[in-house]
Write a structure and sequence with these properties.
189 residues; alpha+beta; three-stranded antiparallel beta sheet; 5 helices; 11 strands; globular
Length: 189
C-alpha cells in the first residue's frame, strides 16, 4: 500500500487516487508549505533546515518532486512531493563517500545510472521508530534531479545514463513517483 493508496493503475503501476493518478508534477511550493510537510523530523528541526532560497526560479513544469542538497551541510538532503493529495517532505542524511560511489550505480527513484552520481541516502523513520534511531536508506541521484534526468533536461556526467526504454515520459515519471512513494511508505510505516 503506497502512502495510503489501495489500488495501482493497471497500465503504469502508479498509485491511483479518487481524482485519477496520484503521480503529477509538483506544483510550485512555498517555504512554509515545505517546512510544515516534513514527516521524519521535529518542527524545530524543520524550522532550522535550509530550504532553497529561489523557489520561484525552479523549473516547476519539469519537476515531479522537489529535491535539494543543503549547501551549508553537505551530508544533508531533502525532498518534497505531493502524494495522495497532500505534500510530504523527507529529511535525508548522506553518509560520507564510499568506494562504491566511484562505480556506476543506479538511482532507486528514476533508474538513471551514474558513475559517482548516486549516493546512499538515509532517512530517519517517522514517529517513535525514528526517535529510537531506526532508519531506512536507498541509493538516489546525488543532486536529487531525477525529474530532469528522465526528461533529458540534465545530462548525466561520467559513465552511465538513461537506459533505452520503450516507456513514455509519463510512464517514467509515474515509475519515479511510485518508487518515491514506496520509500516514503517505509519511512512512515
Amino acid at each position: 500500500m503506497l502512502c495510503g493508496h489501495a489500488a495501482l493503475d493497471p497500465i503504469n503501476n502508479c498509485p491511483r487516487s479518487e481524482g485519477g493518478l496520484a503521480c503529477r508534477p509538483v506544483r510550485p511550493l512555498t517555504e512554509p508549505e515545505i517546512r510544515s510537510a516534513f514527516v521524519n523530523c521535529t518542527k524545530g528541526e524543520a524550522k532550522r533546515l535550509n530550504v532553497p532560497r529561489d523557489l520561484a526560479g525552479y523549473p516547476w513544469d519539469d519537476l515531479d518532486f522537489l529535491g535539494w542538497r543543503d549547501p551549508q551541510a553537505p551530508d544533508r538532503a531533502y525532498f518534497a512531493a505531493e502524494l495522495d493529495g497532500g505534500l510530504v517532505a523527507v529529511a535525508l542524511r548522506c553518509p560520507g563517500p564510499s568506494p562504491l560511489q566511484k562505480r556506476s550505480n543506479i538511482c532507486s527513484f528514476c533508474v538513471t545510472a551514474h558513475t559517482g552520481g548516486v549516493t546512499l541516502m538515509v532517512a530517519a523513520r517517522g514517529g517513535k521508530a525514528g526517535q529510537q534511531g531506526n532508519s531506512v536508506g536507498t541509493y538516489l541521484c546525488t543532486d536529487l534531479a531525477c525529474s530532469l534526468y528522465i526528461r533529458d533536461k540534465k545530462p548525466v556526467v561520467g559513465l552511465g545514463g538513461r537506459f533505452r526504454e520503450r516507456l513514455t515520459l509519463e510512464e517514467r515519471a509515474d515509475r519515479t513517483m511510485t518508487n518515491l512513494a514506496t520509500f516514503v511508505d517505509k519511512i512512515i510505516a
